[in-house]
Amino acid sequence: MVSGKRIFSDFKVFSRGYLRNVFGLFFGLIFPVILILIFGAIFSGNASGTINVYAQNQDTGYATQNLGNTFLETINETSTVRAITVDPTENFTQYLADNSASDGIIIPENFTISYGTGQPVNVTVYGNPTASTSGIISGTVGGIANYMNLHYFQQKYNDTTPAIIGITSTTVNTSQTKYVDFLIPGLIGFSILVNPMFSLVNISSEYKKNKLFKQLSLTPLTKMEWLTSKVMFYILLAAASFLLMVGVGILAFGAHVTLTLWLVPFLIIGPMLFASLGMLVGTVTKNPETAGIIGNIVTFPMMFLAGTFFPLSIMPDYLQSVAHVLPLFYIIEGLNNVMVYGNISGAIIDLAVIAVITAVIFALAVKLFKWRED
Amino acid sequence: MFPIEVSSLKKCYGNLNAVDGISFSVNNGEVFGLLGPNGAGKTTTIEILEGLREKDGGDAKVLGLDPWKNGYTLHKKIGVIPQEFTFFDKTTPREAIIYYSDLFKVKVDPDEILKEVLLEDSAKRNFDTLSGGQKQKTGLALSLVNTPELLFLDEPTTGLDPNARRAIWDVIRGLKNKGKTIILTTHYLDEAQQLCDRVAIMNHGKIVAMGTSEEIIKEHGSGERLEIHGSEKLAEYIRANTELQVDYNKARGEIIIPLEQKIDALAALAAAEQSGMDWGHIQTLQDSLDDVFVKLVNAKVNEQGEIIDDAQAKPKANDKRRR
Question: Which fold does the domain A51-156 belong to in CATH?
Answer without folding.
Answer: abc type-2 transporter like fold (3.40.1710)
